[in-house]
From TrEMBL:
Annotated protein name in UniProt: LacI family DNA-binding transcriptional regulator
Transmembrane parts of this sequence: none
Record organism: Cohnella soli
Entry annotated with the keyword DNA-binding: yes
Gene Ontology molecular function: DNA binding
Gene3D superfamilies: 3.40.50.2300, lambda repressor-like DNA-binding domains
InterPro entries, alphabetized: HTH_LacI (IPR000843), Lambda_DNA-bd_dom_sf (IPR010982), Peripla_BP/Lac1_sug-bd_dom (IPR001761), Peripla_BP_I (IPR028082)
Keywords, in A-Z order: DNA-binding, Transcription, Transcription regulation
Length: 332
């Protein structure tokens, strides 16, 4: 028969409540009592029930992660960073994929609340007014990745998407390109909108006429959009809002018998593993994706332990990686 908390309390000559406080690292327990209880726990091989602990504390040892598209190679890397950091802190991870469906996202948020997760890391497909209102009313630790809600009490980890796009387009302008197209991501995704704004401002600052094609963050969308861009705009350079779009665009450029970067130079964003496998290798904005996940859990842990009150935004550093597709030489 497995030992119970009553067995531990009786042998350690303390109350059940004291054993519970020791298990939950309550600082009010005296060191001598804590050591005695822990010694008895070891002797008996007692393992506390996670279910019982959840009922007692109204929280679990589980962190929820909500992703918009698990098939995008960018997001599993974030998930790995979150999982590794959560495991190190003693938490399990509950992952939900929304397929960029706002209604499914709200459904998963509610399910995680019902499961009494300790906190949620959210990479939202959209942050509309209804979603923001629901998040604000939850009274639960929440950290946003790749998104930021100005004026709302949510921690966030992200890069400066506007600055990254501006730098990429400015590089092209510095190389003498004047017809620079942009493949943008969905209008309801904040990072895509910020990258588009960075592109537009860089073009306008150089008195160049912009050309934007809006689609989804997919390889297929990149192929489809690029055909229309070539027909309508005849660009000499392309900045794509993510690497999947860029790789799809490169496929269409090859299909048209054009060369990269000779006829059209290309820069993507995210630096997913496939960017080094393409021919030519894809130039891109490198993002510390894994570290974004780790940092998100660290911020969540601060909230869950009450270490910090108030919103904190962490802007991670990005880097423009010059590879073959833009005529660069770094090849990192």
């Amino acid at each position: 028969m497995k030992p119970t908390i009553i067995d531990v309390a009786e042998r350690a000559k303390v109350s059940k409540a004291t054993v519970s406080r020791v298990l939950n690292n309550n600082p009010q327990v005296k060191d001598e009592i804590r050591e005695r209880v822990l010694r008895v726990i070891e002797e008996l091989g007692y393992r506390p029930s996670a279910i019982a602990r959840n009922l007692a504390t109204n929280r679990s040892n589980v962190i929820g992660l909500i992703l918009p598209d698990i098939t995008n190679p960018y997001f599993p890397v974030i998930a790995r960073g979150i999982e590794d950091a959560a495991h190190q802190l003693g938490y399990a991870l509950f992952i939900s994929n929304t397929d960029n469906d706002p209604k499914l996202e709200q459904e998963y948020i509610q399910k995680m609340v019902e499961q009494q997760v300790s906190g949620i890391v959210l990479i939202s497909s959209t942050l509309d007014e209804e979603t923001v209102h629901e998040l604000t009313s939850l009274q639960m630790p929440i950290v946003l990745c790749d998104r930021l809600i100005v004026g709302k009490p949510f921690d966030a980890v992200l890069i400066d998407d506007y600055k990254a796009a501006y730098e990429a387009v400015s590089y092209f302008i510095g190389q003498g390109h004047q017809r620079i197209a942009h493949l943008a991501g969905p209008r309801n995704i904040q990072s895509a909108e910020n990258r588009k704004t960075g592109y537009l401002d860089a073009m306008r600052s150089a008195n160049l006429e912009p050309f934007v094609s809006v689609g989804t963050f997919s390889y297929e969308s990149g192929m489809h959009q690029m055909g229309a861009v070539i027909d309508e705009y005849r660009p000499t350079a392309l900045f794509a809002s993510n690497d999947l779009l860029a790789l799809g665009a490169m496929q269409e450029i090859h299909r048209r018998g054009l060369t990269i970067p000779g006829d059209i130079a290309v820069i993507g964003c995210d630096d997913i593993p496939f960017s080094k496998m393409s021919r030519p290798m894809l130039s891109t904005i490198s993002i510390p994706v894994y570290q974004i996940g780790v940092t998100a859990v660290q911020l969540l842990e601060d909230q869950m332990k009450g270490v910090r009150v108030g919103m904190k935004s962490v802007i991670m550093e990005h880097k423009l990686i010059h590879r073959e597709s833009c005529g660069g030489v770094d090849l990192l």
